[in-house]
Amino acid sequence: MRRSLASALLASGVLVTPLAAMAQEAGPLEPLGMRAGAFLLYPRLNASAQFDSNVYAEPNHENSDLAFVVRPELEARSTWSRHALEALIFAEGGFYLDETSQNYLDFGASVLGRVDISRMQALRIGLRAARLHEDAAAPDRTPGNNSDVTKYLNLVGSLTYRHEFNRFFVQPGITVSRNDYEDVPGFNNDDRDHNRYAFSLRGGVRVSPAIGVFGEGEYRITDYDQTPDDNGVDRESKAWAARVGVEVEMSRLLIGEAAVGIAHHDPDDNALDSTTGFNAVVNLTWTPTPLTTVAIGALADLQETTVTFGGNTASARFRKQVSVSVSHQLRRNVELVGSASYMRDDFEDTARSDDTISLGAGVNYTVNRWLAVGVSYNFQTRSSDDNNAEYDRHVVRGGIRLQR
């Protein structure tokens, strides 16, 4: 039920991430960074211009506009022989020529750490704090209000412990998150503010040095600030999932994990039905040749939602999603990228279902270890039982990256 895995599978563009991956594997074109004690610092500045054919993701009367996006960031990586620590600080501003109500300023920081307790034991810690904005195409966006960007605070903390006993391993974990949405004129977003607590336990066995099979369980509690909400609905819930899967680390050929199972979502409100459904998480990276990388992702999960449709309140969102992205180095400093994804959202206890298709393509050119440029195109379309949620959207982007 980890939404974070799904979020990584859907790329909103093909410029920034492929450039980062390309720089890491380009050898002489890799940024050198700056030494700061036991850390290497990597400052970066991304600047791009993009044309959006449907800024508000509307079904009719589409508004197109040109926007400029600037994203400075600073990454720090430890150089210790034991343990590891990575940190990232970023800010991103988007500025539209005409639709200035969609201007935004995101900022935040994240820390990922690994403590090597022994050769068989490790502790992983993750922290993130960010003020972000909600895209106009988000299913749970403020209904009937396309004139203002919804901003929200996102806080996430996770702790995972891994202990291996010869061929066997056990991995308990806990994740705590907080989403706090700001109000927009004419609409109160307090109904959406919530905390989430997820507890997981994985246990398995390595059948070979490159393959491990496992079983895992997860239990999640979602606690809303305002209960019941303005519509008299208690949206708090409990949920669990059970999966079996495989961890794969075949050198650089195939890396990642895949798991399938069952999930159950139980709202606290007696007026909302409990839901049981198929559950799956797939996150694999396949490198068929030294020049080609394929990322494969899939998700089937019961998630929280605040959607109402046809006078009915959705008890959960059953999301099914598959995606694939391909990058190929045509030359050492020229990379072609492409992506495709399909996502279906079924809003349980309502007659609404959404089908969203996204296609993307682009090319990145690394001039030298300090400068890279790229262009990309992304098309997204959604069909829905809710006519107001349907849209077609074309986004063309070109930009540069300065890095050290």
List the helices and strands and how they pair.
Elements: H1 3-9, H2 16-25, E1 34-36, E2 39-52, E3 65-78, E4 84-96, E5 104-118, E6 121-133, E7 151-165, E8 168-181, E9 194-208, E10 211-224, E11 237-250, E12 254-267, E13 275-289, E14 292-303, E15 308-309, E16 312-313, E17 317-331, E18 334-347, E19 353-368, E20 371-384, E21 391-403
Antiparallel strand pairs: 1-2, 2-3, 2-21, 3-4, 4-5, 5-6, 6-7, 7-8, 8-9, 9-10, 10-11, 11-12, 12-13, 13-14, 14-17, 15-16, 17-18, 18-19, 19-20, 20-21
Total beta-strand segments: 21
Strand and helix order = HHEEEEEEEEEEEEEEEEEEEEE
Rounded mean pLDDT is: 90
The structural domain count equals: 1
Q: What fraction of the residues are assigned to beta strands by DSSP?
A: over 45%
Low-confidence parts: 1-26
Distance, first to last CA: 37 Å
Helix content: under 10%
The secondary structure category is: mainly beta
Task: Please tell me how large the radius of gyration is.
Answer: 22 Å
CATH-derived topology: Porin
Q: Enumerate how many helices there are, as a single number.
A: 2
Question: What profile does the largest beta sheet have?
Answer: 18 strands, antiparallel, barrel
Give the C-level CATH assignment.
Answer: Mainly Beta
CATH architecture: Beta Barrel
